[in-house]
Every structure is written in C-alpha cells, then in structure tokens.
C-alpha cells in the first residue's frame, strides 16, 4: 500500500483527492493536513465521509508526513513555499496542485505570478504532470507540478493539431467555461448561490495565469513560440470545464481528416475520448471521472478547426490527474482507482 | 462472479444500477435490456461509459437472461407483468424495482394501484427488500420487491419511534421533498429545465402510492394499523429525498433521549447514519452514496418528534438498495461495491 | 408623489424594494441608506439599475430621511433600535422589515428573540402589516411591522380554516421550504453556490422565530391559543416559499367544500389566488409578483386538510407587502405598482 | 391605445411578449393566438397571469386579428408563411420573430435555411429590426424581421469596432453561451432538467443559422464581406446570452481607447450600456430587462480586442426588442414599457 498524505485536505481539490484515494485499492490515507479544521475528523468537515473515513485533520506535522510515501499538496500559496522543499529533502515524493512547479522557465513564472520564485532549483527538477504528454518523465519524478484545470483541458484539446504541423500558430483562441468548484471553497460574494445561479460572466480576460501554462506546452508541441487568447468564464454549475478552441489550418482539411488525426494521436490514451465525427462532448459526460472528451469540427468556409474539449475540473483538472501521476510514479497501472464512468446524473 | 442482467437499463434507475454494478468487484454485467436502444452500446446512450463499459443493449431475450444469476427489473408496468414470473420459472433471482412485489396484502396493492395483481402467488412469496428491516428474509429470497425511494427514506426515519412504542400512532405526517431524477427520464413539460429550475411544488397529495407502502411497514413495526399523511414535493435538484416526519410522543421526552433511541436502533447498520444531537442531515451528504442520514429534534412544547431523513433517491432509494439486496442474496458482505462516500460536490 | 427612503437598500429585501419602487408610478426614491456602500450609486452596487436609477447610497442621515414621507427600514437588528423611534418622532411613517414590531405581546417577542424590547411603547402602537388581515389598522398606522416571509405564506394558508371554526387547533403542522434569497446577502459557507446547489435541508426545527408570529396570528383568528410545529427548509432556488400545512378537521368535509371556503374567504383579495379543486400552486407561478397562491386537498381518510401556500419571499414575503402597506397608508389603490404577473421564466 | 395581437402566444417568446405588453401603458392585448391551447385563458396556461390577464387563446382568426394595429408573430415556420402576407395585405403591421424576414438577400436566406423563400417580395420590403442600427427604417416599416437572440447580442458587441475601420475583418470569432429558454418550450431530452442542469455543451458548430444574420450586419457595418466563426453553447440557466467576441486590431490600441470608442458609438442608446474599463458584464445584470451590456478588453500582447456582450435572450433577444420596434413604428418613445431594471435576483 502506498501511504499518502493530503495537505490542504479540506479545500475542494483536497477533498476530491480524499474521495478518490478513499476508493483507491493501493493507497492508505495516513495524514490529512488542514489548518482550519485541526483536530476534527474529516467526516465532521465533509459529512459524506461518515462511516467511510474517520482520519483526523491535523496542522502540518512534517514528522508525521515523513512516514508517507507521497504527499499531495493543495496548500495556500504562502504555505507551500517552505513545505515542499522540506518534504523533498525528507525523501517524500510530492505532487503539488499549485501553480508553483509547472514551469520550464522561471522567468515565465515570475512574469505571470508577479513575484520571485522561491525554489528555482526545485522548479528545474520538477516535472509538469500532464500525464498524456509527459508520462515518461513523470515516472521518475520526485516533484510533480500538477497542471491546472483550464490548462489540461485546453492543452489536450489543441495538442494533436499543433503537434501535427497542420495548424497556423497565430490566431489561436481558447474560450473556456468553468463550473464554480474551480473557484474553491473560500467565501466571496460572486460565489454566493443567489449571485451565481442564473448567471454567467467572463473574467481575467488576457491576464489569467493559465494562459502562460497553455502557451508553454503548446509551444513545445509546435516547436515554436505560441501566444494565445485565453478567456475564462464562470457558468452556473459545480463541476466541468468546456474549452472551445479555434485554430486556423494552413491548408484545407475536412472534419473527417482532423477527427482521424485526433483519434490517431490519442489512440493509446485511456483517459482521452475523441468523439466520432458529428458528435460533441458535454460536461455531463465527464463529471466525476478522469476522462477528457474532445470533439472536432472543421469550418471549411474559414479553413478553421473548432475543437471542443471537456473535463471535470476537480478530477482530471486537479485531483484525478494527481492520482494518475501518483500511479505512474509508483509503477501502478495508470488507471488504478480512476477507471470509473463518472456520475452523469 | 455474479452474472447480472439489468432489464430497463437506460432509464435513470437502470443506468444507476449499471454505474454501481460496473464498480462492483463481484459482478459481471452480462445483459442490458432496453427496448428503445436495442442494438446500441450502453456507452452510446450514456456517453460517460465510453472506455468503461461497452455492453450492447438488446431487446428482452429470455434465453440470454437465463445465463445470468440475477436480473434487476426496472421495466415499464406492462412489461414486468409477464417477464418476472418467467424469469423466476427459469430459476433466475429477480430484484424488481417496480411497485408490484412490495405488498404483503394483495388487496392493498389493488386498492392503490387500481388494478388486479397479475401474479398474486408470486407476490406472496416475494420479500420486501428494505434490507435494514428484512435482512434475513432477503437472504433466502428468489424475488425481491425493491422498495420505493420515498418509502425507504420515510420508513427508516420513523422506524425507531414506532418500534419503540413511544410514538402516538395518530397524526403522523410525512412531508417529503424529492429531486427530479425521481420522475425518470420520460419527457414531460413539468420536467423541462425551464419549468423545473427555480420551481417547487407538491403533487399527488393524499393519493401517492408510496403512502400505502409506508403504512404497511410502519404498521408492522408498531403492531397496529397506521395511516399517515404523505405529501411528495418536487424540488429543483437532480438527486436526493428529504423526508420531514412529525410524530407525537405518548409522553415527554428530550431530544437527547430520542437521539439515543435512534442511535441504538441503528447501531449495527452501516448504511444508516444517525446524526448527533444538534445536527441535521442534508441531501448533499448522501448524494451518490447508499447512506440514509437521519436527524431528530423533539419539540418539547408540543411533545412531538420531528425527524429528518435523507437519502439519494436513485441509490439507497433504488439502484443501491437493489445491489445491497443482491449482496445479501448471494452471501456477500452487504457493503460490497457500495461503501463509497458519495460525491458531496 | 410619495417621497420614499429605503434604509438598508443594498441587502436583498432592500434592493427588491428599490426595484419595486422604481416601477411605482406614485413614488420617488429620495434616499437610499447603506452603511457598506456609502457614496456609491445604487447602480454601481446592483448593475441592473444602470440607466434606470442613479441615486447615491449614503450612510444614515436623519435630516435627509426626514424630507421623506415614508421610510422602509431593512436594517441590521442593532441599528434599527435607535433609528425607528427617531424617525417616528420626526413624523415619518415607517415600514419596518425586521421582526421588532410584529408582536402584540412584548413577552412573546422577548421570549423568542431572547432580549428585552427596546421600544415597548412603539411596539404597542405598531400595526402588524399583513394587509389581508389588518387592512383597516394599516391605513391609519404610523409604524408597520412588516410580516416575515414564512409567516405571510403560512398564516394566509391557514387563515380560512382557523377563522371558520372547522379546524382542530391541535396538531397543526407547517412544513415550509424557502429559496436562498431568504437568507440574505451575507456570506456564509452554507450559501456558497457549490454547497447550496443540489442540496436541501431543514434548519432551526422547533426554534425558528417565525413560529411565534404564525402562532400569534392564528390564535387571533381561531379565538384561542394555538401552538404549531413550524419547520423551515432551505432548497436550491433563489426565490419562493412553499408552505405545506396540515390541519385536522373537526368533522368530515370534502375537498370541494374546503376549496369553496377558501375561495369565499379570499373573494375580495386581489393578491390571493385560491386554486380550483384539483390544482396546486407552484413557486414559479408567484415568482417576481406580490401574489399568494393557495391550493387545498382534504385527505378524507384522515379527516385532514392539506393546504399548500406559496409566495415570493422577497416580494409578498418582504418588499412587495411593504409597498402594499405603503399604498394603504397613503390612500392609494393597494395594487398600485404591484399588479404585475411575475416572471414565470 | 395600440391594439395588439400575439400569434404563438404560449411559446416562451410569445409569453414574454404577453408579459411585457401586459405592463405596457399604451397597449391593449386584443388577440392571443395559440393552436395548442385554443379556448383556454392565457392564465390557465401560464398561471402567473391569473388576476392579471384573462384573455382567451384562440386558433388563428384573421378577421379578429384584423381589428388590431399590430401583430407579433412567433409562429412555427410553416404557419407563418401564409399568415404574414395575409396580415400585411389586410393592413396590419407585423413584427415577425422568426428568421424569415431578416435578410437583405434572398439567396443568403435560401442557403442557410435550405429552402426557397415563400415571399421574396415581402422580404425585400421588410426591415431588419435591430433598432440601434436601423431605427429610421423601422419607424416607417410595415413588416419587421425581428432579429435573433444570438445575433442582437453579437452584432451590437462587434458593431463599434467594425464601423470604425479599426478592426481586421478576418479571424473574427463569436463564442456565444445561451440559457435554455432559447430552445423554446418544445420537449426534448436535451432540455429535460436532469440532462440539462450541471451540463454545458457546444452545438451546431459552423452551421447555426444566426451566423448568416451576424455576417450580413457586420458586413454592412464594415463595408466589406465578413465571414465569422460562430459557436453557440447551451449552459444551465434559463435566461441570458453572453457572447465573447475576438477581433484583431489593425494597429495597436489600448483598452482605454477602445472602451472610449464603444462609449462614444452608443452614447445616445438607452438600451446599450458600455461598461467602464476594468468592468465586465454578467447575464444577471440584464436578466428580465431590455438592456445589452458590453465590456471590452484589449489584449495588447496580441493586438486583439476581446468584447463581451450580454442580453436577456427572450427580452432584448426577442420579445423586448419586438416591443421596442413597435414603439418606434407607432411613434412612441422607444423606452415605453421597457425601461425597467431587470430582476437581478
């Protein structure tokens, strides 16, 4: 059994990790870190866990965490700075859900996060845990920068076209819609039920940090520097991201051709489901699961591909992908504990 | 492995059965019956199952079903009439999700369903599959009448008080609120998103068939005939039933005493969670799980207990309880494949 | 034109008052009090008002308010204590949306609110502004205690039976479901979208303050002291209260007879719509309007009436009724500015 | 008083027309056409109208409609074909909510609708009723092609940039999200509450008919032929469209400059509200009102403007704009009956 710690267990990403790990046949949850609920059972904080998991939440205790094989860190920005290097020093593998260890280039991080990086050496070593693109590096990593929700959805949606060389690299637009769990459990008027239901809006246009993460990966795939428009939106549902991606094609192609390209690119990927021509993905199809569903239409009038990519932001967009990374790091089948179909209802 | 057939697999109860069974370690799904989607893969009808389960849906084929150990029947009323006796004849255990095999007394059935019962002999043999109350009979049954959603929630909520003899048996009120999955997948203007969201209503006041099912079980528990008011309501959520139950007490009792009574009554039940004094259940705590959560308050001014009972109508109120029954019938641990914590989010 | 001030204009009851008054042909909004948004235009706080109403919000300024004919007070408990007596002293009519001036008997207030009343003299003078029951007193009042949302819905739903003498006065149960605007705009984890959507729960069982308000009015109607069970529930919609009321009948009656009793009782009331036999109200039918819709079924098996009463909690349950009171106090047709049909969609 | 007929009164656009007209001070509703509810009062079909409007629905009766000054037609495609020419012949002004009379060029209609136009002469005469762009022609029109919901939102969002000559006319992307009322009241599994809530999806990519309507108007504004990507999405709310529009700029501009351009362009428009720099519109701000709210950000990295435009699809996107057109055609102030602030809650 892999002994696991979840630091920041009572936020939405954290509790989804706990939910997934509690169903994982090869994991025992040994430590749940929570500043706010120190001393409480996790089942007192999230009452759905009563009779299922009665582990206590504790303030961070490195000696306790050290008994674990892996720590998932879903910590507030300040906290993770000092904790992660210490965990690595103590020989624990770390899968970090923050943005801190997702970058190849410390300058990109510093530009988009507006501050100096506190562990540039570790950043260099860390692996960007988008499993479908970096599987081999993940297997050997000590420290994973687990990708963002918008980014996983958007990068996978665009990857086949950019890797193929068929895409023009200018004028790529990613218009993404997210459910409200993406904003976390912190209070805010914008997330009050009465303000949020029956409401949709765009936010952080041209400035959202995930832009830089998407650009980094798409640039690597394309072999040239890519800059995109990324617009996040908040829509009135709990789970789910849907990214609509517009990519001009260098030459004329049919929908059939591009669907074939996508099916081929992802043919060995369990967690990516490319829709048949004429079908489009829906967030309901992926909710509660680790799948990414992708549909493609070519607008032949405009020589432009429109790709729709969807996932559950707190599963494949956070906790599920973190567990997929763990599976890879510990030599398990990538699907272990993750191969369920989702809720639908 | 238990070979299972689901007849009526593409309705909401059916697909929830498929979802639960697809995660069950001791079951293989061998036959999915669906009139409407004959020839289609289940993953074409419910696209969340792509890459997970690719069984074909078929029209009913008794010879195929006969290869199974158990059939779950979630059929339209007419169809189940002839199918179930035939399945029993062929030696297959049947767990029926309709109302047809839930009654001790054929007359009660005929009064509330307004028609003659087509298999009164089988009705006599069938067992009412409310596991917590009829566990021993379930173990030996060939045919289970799987309880209704409102009824499971309401009966378990009232059981400890009625079994204890502390309750007055007049003036019992069950005011129940249900999510929309309870109405099934059939189209109807009342279930159109725009008519249903931001809307609540009562329906079938004093005439809902579940009334008779609740009365049957409460009468047995109390040892005398009980008649109740049962009012179902539709509220704008997918999953969840919350029953608020009003029961007068013969003598003065405190909340503490009655909570203790409930905790004691259910002390060996994994799937019933009695809340501590001062806490109340919420549908979110049980969504996606097989748990029933129950909270109790005594209104000392009025010498009246107010019990709040909640479950997921398509899990413990339908598919989950059906699997719990199967586990019992096949000698498995009752919790097998059902011990997860639910979604919460 | 009636010059109106709204104190506490940026809470949900306050802004609904502003919305209704901004459509009222005989009112000019002269003062909007808001501690939190002092100096901001109301259209900066609620952006739906841009181009429609550009009045500034201000901290309370009694000299400014004094220029008005009427002040609606939707203030936090502490603030209203000193403000209301001062407004009355200065000759301004006051319609108070808090619970402070709704009681005939100061002792009942003190028992349920757990503190001494700060203006017992004013309480004596104040009129309980449930227009349908106290129209004549409202006309001459200087100070209105505007009824609560649950209470308006529940009292009107029970009134005809209690006034008629046909009802047993024991065992009256009011099971009420409310949308989330009822909880106001203050932040709280329970009102976070992700915690609130897809969730229902009961709260404050046997202790909610509105119990005492309902009991006061029903006791007056019945001519004897009445105690009821009142259970509030939170359901995942913005607007709407639905009260399901259980009342035993002294003698046998049919649904038809009791429907007729209700139609007769409310025959002159514009804002009360009694449903025909066989029909039941829905919150969607009243959302955005000042109507109360009431349906009745008699359960002849149990000699019990089940009444369903519904209204929009922030219109007839708060702001709309406040304006109805204002209309009466200023000699206008009660319907002025309030006779619209609601949104439905 | 303007005597008005609404044909197709019981669909969602129709009933919103009825709602708006019932509050309009210069209109009397004389005829409500409904095939499905012939003989029923409108208040029996939409019970929110009880006590407010008791007009009967009837099958189409041209002699009755002829007594009116104006007919709003929200008819199924087949029906409107013969009715509208006949109404025009009889001298009634017609505001048609279908797509039939929105085109300058019959060929564009025939290409996108896949059939011959049945009244090409009338099409030539008809005026495209986007009031902000065609106010003068509307005033004199006998027949208005009332714009689509997506189109009004998208055209107004892009108009200032295209009219200014600052925009590149290639690579314009309109990514639009719509509430479910846009799909109408007809039944369909996709609009079942349980399928629709907690779900988002794109549909009709590159083929939605509104594409051609947007292209027609943007081409006129730009003075050259424009082709756009238009992607509609369904999101889980009732009302509201949010269009996110991507337009490359020929030269470098700041957000401030483009906001100023927008404010200037719409400076005389009551129903268009351009947000200050740094603010973005939300569907909640326009729900229940005739306003269009528009926000602009320039992504200086990419020399691209991102415009967010939002309206209530059944008000400014259908019924409200129809009434605005009527006001213009009958010489009333355009705002009459439409100047309310919306619901917000």
Written account of the structure:
The structure is a homotetramer of 345-residue chains. Chain A is an alpha/beta fold and 345 residues long. In chain A, 34% of the residues lie in helices and 21% in strands. The first copy, chain A, has 13 helices and 14 strands. The first copy, chain A, has helices spanning 12-22, 42-45, 62-66, 77-89, 106-113, 120-125, 131-139, 149-164, 193-196, 210-222, 255-265, 283-286, 315-329, and strands at residues 2-7, 27-33, 57-58, 70-73, 93-96, 127-128, 143-145, 172-178, 201-202, 228-234, 241-248, 272-274, 292-299, 304-311. In chain A, the strands form two sheets. A seven-stranded parallel beta sheet of chain A has the order 3-2-1-4-5-7-6, with helices on both faces. In chain A, strands 9-10-8-11-14-13-12 form a seven-stranded mixed beta sheet. In chain A, helix 12 links the parallel strand 12 and strand 13. The radius of gyration of chain A is 20 Å and the shape is globular. The model of chain A has no long low-confidence stretch (mean pLDDT 97). Chains in contact: A-B, A-C, A-D, B-C, B-D, C-D. At the A-B interface, helix 1 and helix 12 of A face helix 1 and helix 12 of B.
């Amino acid at each position: 059994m892999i002994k696991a710690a979840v630091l920041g267990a009572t936020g939405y990403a954290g509790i989804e990790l706990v939910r997934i790990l509690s169903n994982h046949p090869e994991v025992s949850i040994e430590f749940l870190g929570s500043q706010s609920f120190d001393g409480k059972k996790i089942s007192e904080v999230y009452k759905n866990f009563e009779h299922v998991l009665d582990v206590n939440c504790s303030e961070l205790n490195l000696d306790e965490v050290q008994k674990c094989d892996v720590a998932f860190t879903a910590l507030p920005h300040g906290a993770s700075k000092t904790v992660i290097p210490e965990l690595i020093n103590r020989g624990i593998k770390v899968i970090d859900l923050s943005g801190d260890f997702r970058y190849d280039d410390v300058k990109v991080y510093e530009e988009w996060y507006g501050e100096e990086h506190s562990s540039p050496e570790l950043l260099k070593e860390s692996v960007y845990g988008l499993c479908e693109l970096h599987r081999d590096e993940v297997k050997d990593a000590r420290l994973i920068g687990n990708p963002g929700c918008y980014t996983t959805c958007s990068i996978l949606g665009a990857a086949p076209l950019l890797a193929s060389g068929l895409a023009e690299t200018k004028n790529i637009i990613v218009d993404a819609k997210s459910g409200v769990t993406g904003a976390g459990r912190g209070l805010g008027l914008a997330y009050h039920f009465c303000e949020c239901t029956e409401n949709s809006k765009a936010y952080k246009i041209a400035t959202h940090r995930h832009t830089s993460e998407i650009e980094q990966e798409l640039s690597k795939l394309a072999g040239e520097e890519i800059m995109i428009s990324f617009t996040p939106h908040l829509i009135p549902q709990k789970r789910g991201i849907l990214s609509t991606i517009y990519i001009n094609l260098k030459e004329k192609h049919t929908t059939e051709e591009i669907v074939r390209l996508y099916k081929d690119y992802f043919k060995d990927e369990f967690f990516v489901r490319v829709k048949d021509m004429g079908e489009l993905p829906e967030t309901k199809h992926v909710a509660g699961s680790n799948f990414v569903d992708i549909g493609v239409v070519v607008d032949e009038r405009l020589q432009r591909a429109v790709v729709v990519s969807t996932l559950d932001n707190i599963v494949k967009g956070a906790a599920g992908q973190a567990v997929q990374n763990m599976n890879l790091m510990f030599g398990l089948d990538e699907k272990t504990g993750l191969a369920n179909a989702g809720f639908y209802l």
